[in-house]
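Milestone 3.1: sequence recovery, worked example.
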């Protein structure tokens, strides 16, 4: 699970630890799906596409816009226990209270998913769910989104 931080014409952006499990998986297979689910509305949107790291400058800019506590929390990786996490946090908080600017860790940054497929799903009590899939297709030299209805 990730916190989506932005959407622009290039795609959907989030930030995380590049050395995390998802970071390793994306380095091996740079394709992913995002799922937005609204239980109360019985709807979801699935977005699929290729994933690339955002620029170092974009990651730096976002990192320094975060609260200091979030910046400090991004420095830690695997810890043997919660007590160690709290101790490291205190030590880093003290260190950076004197130094000012907290440097962005090399293992931390953003990803952008460039969508190439959308599926809109609306659940039905009959289980005959509405599913519409959008994907790009070239027609007469122009990229257009083709829409197909999928079986439930």
């Amino acid at each position: 699970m990730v916190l989506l931080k932005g959407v622009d014409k290039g795609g959907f952006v989030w930030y995380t630890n590049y050395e995390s499990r998802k970071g390793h998986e994306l380095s091996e297979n740079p394709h992913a799906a995002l799922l937005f689910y609204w239980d109360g509305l019985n709807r979801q949107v699935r977005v699929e596409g290729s994933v690339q790291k955002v620029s170092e400058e974009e990651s730096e800019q976002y990192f320094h816009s975060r609260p200091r506590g979030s910046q400090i929390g991004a420095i830690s990786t695997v810890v043997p226990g919660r007590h160690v996490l709290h101790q490291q946090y205190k030590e880093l908080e003290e260190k950076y209270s004197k130094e000012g600017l907290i440097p962005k860790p090399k293992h931390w940054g953003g990803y952008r998913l460039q969508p190439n497929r959308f599926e809109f799903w609306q659940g039905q009590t009959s289980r005959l769910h509405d599913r519409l899939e959008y994907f790009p297709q070239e027609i007469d030299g122009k990229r257009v989104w083709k829409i197909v209805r999928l079986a439930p």
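The helical segments are 21-28, 56-65, 68-73, 82-99. Strands lie at 4-8, 11-17, 31-38, 43-53, 108-122, 130-139, 142-149.
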